[in-house]
């Protein structure tokens, strides 16, 4: 069975590719991340995904980077949503729609996503978005990659492979939230 793995980044996918292969799937990585705030960051993460595809002996294909569409279709009017809020659900739908479309057009049997490896991403919301994008032509494979210590494995493998691990999900809004949390933490530490 041919599975297209939506790949948010190399470190997250580093736990997903081996698990899918162990389950007997033929895996192709699909790097689709128009949510990433800058082209430089997009390219940096793409290079790490390529390193992983080479290390794991799987193919990788790339979606076009179109942050303007992402801002218009996902973030507009949802800029102030917190992480794990409505903007994130819209982002899951955006990326999984593109993955499902590519998978159906190119003869894959199913699609899934590396997003579920993160303890910061609610798998139930990701599964709901994936199921919405399923059709008679292509099915979503609801694999919760954080199970069986998937996140721990992703950290270990990323370190072994020397992969760049980013400090935020990708969009400017998650980056700002991460910077705010870091600033608050630093302020609290300075009072202790």
List keywords for this structure.
globular, alpha/beta, 192 residues
Per DSSP E runs of 2 or more residues, the count of β-strands stands at: 5
Strand order of the largest sheet: 3-2-1-4-5
- Give the termini distance in whole angstroms: 56 Å
The string of secondary-structure elements, in order, is EHEHEHHEHEHH
Alpha plus pi helix count? 7
Major sheet:
5 strands, parallel
Tell me the overall shape. Answer: globular
User: Which topology does CATH recognise?
Assistant: Rossmann fold
Query: How much helicity do the residues have?
Result: 40-55%
Going by CATH, the architecture would be 3-Layer(aba) Sandwich
Low-confidence stretches: none
**Computed structural class:** alpha/beta
CATH superfamily: HUPs
Average predicted confidence as pLDDT: 92
What amount of the residues lies in strands?
5-15%
Give the C-level CATH assignment: Alpha Beta
Overall number of domains? 1
How would you explain this protein's 3D organization?
The chain is α/β, with parallel strands linked by helices and 192 residues long. 54% of the residues lie in helices and 11% in strands. It has helices spanning 10-22, 39-56, 67-75, 86-105, 123-133, 150-161, 172-191, and strands at residues 2-7, 26-31, 59-62, 110-113, 139-140. A five-stranded parallel sheet has the order 3-2-1-4-5, sandwiched between helices. Helix 1 (10-22) runs parallel beside helix 2 (39-56), helix 1 (10-22) packs across helix 6 (150-161) and helix 4 (86-105) crosses helix 5 (123-133). The termini are far apart. The mean pLDDT is 92.
